[in-house]
Amino acid sequence: MELMQDLAQRVTAVRPDLVNSDASLGELAWIRGKGHAREGGSWVRRLWFSGDVLVAWGWVVLPHRVTRSDGTVKDVTGAGLS
Questions:
Q1: What residues contact residue 69 under an 8 Å CB cut-off, 6+ apart?
Q2: How far apart are CA 63 and CA 75, in angstroms?
Q3: How far is CA 21 from the centre of its chain?
Q4: What's the pTM?
Q5: How far apart are CA 56 and CA 46, in angstroms?
Q6: How many Cα atoms within 13 Å fall on the side-chain side of residue 25?
Q7: What is the predicted pLDDT for the residue at 28?
Q8: According to the model, what pLDDT value does residue 32 have?
Q9: CA 5 and chain centroid, separation
Q10: Which residue, 33, 36, 60, 67, shows the most beta carbons closer than 10 Å to its own?
Q11: How far is CA 35 from CA 17, 27, 29, 59, 82, in A?
Q12: Residue 39 pLDDT
């Protein structure tokens, strides 16, 4: 996650118009980090490097099942790509 945040920060510094609300430094830390810890394998990401420097990333949220605090289960059928 730190590498993804570093890339978001570098892009924001030179091209803030390219950063959407799903990929900002704060959003990566809060929503993505929290969601990935909770959802695990349904949040798949891929990182691309040039040498040792992260130059791109992709993150897909796959359909998954959520157990609510009351014990009921909900199927999340949507998917998303960042």
A1: none
A2: 7
A3: 11
A4: 0.65
A5: 9
A6: 9
A7: 77
A8: 66
A9: 10
A10: 36
A11: 25, 11, 10, 12, 14
A12: 63
Q: Which two tokens stand for residue 40?
A: 């695990």
pLDDT at 38: 63
Mapped onto helix, strand or coil, the DSSP state of residue 81 is strand
C-alpha span between 2 and 54 (Å, rounded): 10
Structure tokens, 26 = 């704060």
Judge contact between 75 and 65, C-beta under 8 A. yes
Spatial distance between the Cα atoms of 12 and 39, rounded to a whole number of angstroms: 28
What are the pLDDT tens digits along the chain (82 aa)? 688 888 888 988 999 888 877 777 777 777 666 666 666 677 788 899 999 999 998 888 889 888 889 999 999 899 888 7
CB 19 within 8 A of CB 8: yes
Alpha-carbon span 66 to 69, nearest angstrom:
10
